[in-house]
Structures are given as C-alpha cells and as structure tokens.
Amino acid sequence: MDKNRLVVIADAGPIIHLDELGCLDVLADWEKVYVPNAVWQEVVNHQPRAMDVFSSLFIRQNTVKTSPLVTALTPLYTLHSGEQEALHWCVAMGNSLLLTDDTAAPCYSTLQINRLMITGYVPWSIFNAHVWSKFNKQRH
C-alpha cells in the first residue's frame, strides 16, 4: 500500500447497513476498501452476501501491528474486536479514512483518525434518493 494515498478502512456497521438498504454501490467511489479480518467475520456473520456483492472492492486484511494507544482506549470505549482492528489499521497506515457508524467519536479524535460517519441518517438519505429516483423515472 502506498503511504501517500488515502487508505479507506471499514468497520462492519456501514457495510452491513448499506447492504441492508441495497446501497453498497456508494462505496464504489473508492478504488479499494480495506476490511480487517475481525470486521470481515462480523459482516459475514450478520450479512453474509455483503462481502460477495462487491468482492472486488473489499480487500480482507490480516491483523496489523497493534497500537498501544488503541489497546489503552479499548476498555474505556468498550471497543469490540472489529473496531479495535480497524483502529489499529488506521493508526498503522496514517493517511486513512475510517468508515464507521459508531458513537466513539472521542476515541477517533484522540487517535487523530479521519472518519466518515455512516449513521442511520446517511443510509436513509441514500435510500430515499434511490427510491425517489426510481419513482420519478416511472412517472416520466
């Protein structure tokens, strides 16, 4: 991976929820989305088909060198294994963007991680845009 390029790393929530809405294609704006192994497992457990739909986009990543700061913050923010691995990757890569739907924003700020919060509002907005687009096409 090129250290100067922005590395997009995903937590499970955005992949799961965007797939539920049939909107995983919004992630195709990035050439690759790196998915830590623990995140991959979580997605496969909750939304198995999500990893198959855009298999060329998602790059499964094994565990990376752990960050002592992420390890120290884990109990404070009750981070599960997927979040921990994603944060370890972000710290290790430096120039990264974390796709997340979590509320542990102070943790991300402490780690100085760029993040794109894909919360309920964003997928709902995307879903509405798709629905209205289809509705307008049917009307004309």
UniProtKB/TrEMBL annotation:
<protein>
    <recommendedName>
        <fullName>Nucleic acid-binding protein</fullName>
    </recommendedName>
</protein>
<dbReference type="InterPro" id="IPR021799">
    <property type="entry name" value="PIN-like_prokaryotic"/>
</dbReference>
<dbReference type="Pfam" id="PF11848">
    <property type="entry name" value="DUF3368"/>
</dbReference>
